[in-house]
Structure formats: C-alpha cells, structure tokens
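I have been asked to look over a protein record a colleague put together. Alongside the sequence sits a line of tokens, each denoting a local backbone shape. I have pasted the whole thing underneath without changing anything:
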Amino acid sequence: MACSSCSTGKDGQPKGCKNNGTCGTDGCNKLTVFDWLSNMSLPGGVEPFNFVEVRFKNGRKHFYKNTENLSLSIGDIVATEANPGHDVGMVSLTGELVRVQMKKKKEDPDSGEILKIYRKASQKDIDVWQEARDREEKIKQRSRQIAIRLNLSMKISDVEFQGDGSKATFYYTAEDRVDFRQLIKEFAREFNTRIEMRQIGLRQEAARLGGIGSCGRELCCSTWLTDFRSVSTSAARYQQLSLNPQKLAGQCGKLKCCLNYELDTYLEALKSFPKTDVKLKTKKGTAVCQKIDIFKGLLWYAYEGEWMNWHKLSPEQANKIIARNKKDEAVGSLEEYELEIQMEDDKKGFKDAVGEDSLTRFDKPKQHRKRRNKKRKKRKGNTSKSKNA
C-alpha cells in the first residue's frame, strides 16, 4: 500500500515528495526493490543489461526489453507493449539487478514472449492514462450493482484500465465457478470497452487492497511478500498457540502468513523434545506430559491421579527415562530428577536484575521524627540561652 502523499498526479509525478518514486525512505512504491548495484560501474567491454522492470497498479510488475536503448531510470513513466494497444507504467528497477530478479523468478531473457518498451510516455499518454484511472472507482461500483442484479455469487474487488483505455480488467473472487457470459455482454454495453475477467484468491485480493494487520504494520502481502505458501493449523500447534480462528486468521479470512515465519525454528527446537503422548513409567506411578516450554527447554509431568502436582523435567532427563522404560526398567520417581534441576539453578546463581537492588537506593535517606524533634529542642534551648545572656 503506497503512501498517499506520493501518489501519482495527472502529470505523472508524485504529489508529495516530488522525488519521482526514488525517495530515500523507499516508501513511495509498494514492493519496491533497493538497487544496491546502482553505485557500481560495469567492467570494461560489458554492455548494460537491456531489460527493465515496470510496475503497474497495486504492485503488478512485469519485465520488458529496452529495444530502443532508451536512457531509463527508476521512476520514469514509459509506454509498454500490450495486447492490444499499449500500457503505461512506472520503471521500478534497471541495470544488473534486473538480471538477478529475472533469474529469481525464472524468466528467460532470450525467450520471445517478453514484451518491449515503446517509448517514454508523452504528456498525451499520461493524460489518457490518468483519465482511465479516474474512471475505475465509478466503474467498480457500477459493475458490482450489475453482478448483484444477475444473482452471481462473486465479488468484484478491483478494476484496472490499460494505459490507453482500450481494455478494462476486472478482478473478482468466487468460491465456485461463475458463468459470467451475460455479465461480460452487459459490461461491454455499459462501459464501451474491451472486458477481461480475472479470478484471484483471497490472499491476492488482500494484497491488492492493502491494509493494517493486527501487529500494527502494513500487510506483508501488500509490502514485500510475493509468494503465498499454504499455511496449516499444525503450524499453530507446533508454536503452542491457541487455536482461535479469530486470532489466527488475517484480513483475507485465511490463516496468517506469519505463522510460517518461525515454524522452522520451532521444529528444529522440538527435535530434542520427546513426544508428548509418551508416558513415563516410574515406581511411584505413570506420569503424563502436561505442558512444554520450548524457550526454557522444560517439560512438566504429572502422575495419573495426581493431576494438580506437576514435576519439572528437562528434555534430556525425559529422554533418559524413556530409554530406560524401553528396556523394561522403571525409575524411582520424578522428584529425583526435579531436585537435579533445582541444584543446577542454584549453582548458576541467577538473580533478578530488579530484585537485586532496591528501587529506592538513589533516594535521599529519610530522617526519623525523634531525631528531628531533638534537633529542634536543642536549637530552641540555644536561642533562649543567648537571649538571657
């Protein structure tokens, strides 16, 4: 979600900082890539990479070939090849970093499918492009009314016009297949332009619309996240999160993508922990796992029938007991292993940083009232003697 102060005006320049999308904070454009190779010159005899990356509405990006060898920089408005006509977008990346991005996205520069850049956009191209963009909001509202009138179970989330205004792309979400043949006929008759319907997922819809997440930051999918991986409820179980759909679901209605960010670290840490469904057999009774703490590296077990009394063990101790149980050997009790952990904690000599010193150690010491009264009496006695003398 780009900042509103730097949105594009009718002349193709941002309204706010006037840096043409190249401000130092890198916040003017959504999903921008910092060109860390811009300060480096090419070796002798090496020709510059003649491909550029162009950004369109809501972060849509494509690679284009600079066949005319135009001098392009980040933020330039260019007219690109489209089918049919031409499209207008903003250059988001140039130079050798485009080669890296194309390799990352598995785009072959030698393939004939890559379109080309016609020219730098003229003032007429920018005016037509801006007029088409001004029509998008009204057309989106009208298209939703037509879809409701035709009783179609779909939601039109966004409309995007091509740069020359010859084609309009309607992005929609639907749970089932939708027969929109009659809808396209009415759209073409109502809007007098070529119509293209494109179905997107709920995650893609949230990425296009943008928003603020429960963490207080902009949505990851609308700022930097480009690949959407499947998220399952097992990711929340491994991280010991409460399975509350309202807290685990994002604005798209699906599970939050951030559940996968630290999942590998949790899985790596859980390798040293025994399975929670394995019971520990002791002479005192059978113990069942009640809780684990991955950060502290501890497990809590309770005897069957004594569910209120929990005993703290480390993963190494639990694995030792399980190994002895496999050999049909029962340990004495869990209390023996719990005492070992307490002795180790005492040896470490850990002290609370707050409780180590008093919070009022920098305050001035308070004088007792008795001392104050004695001092006052002495002063009065001295003054009375001086007066009598």
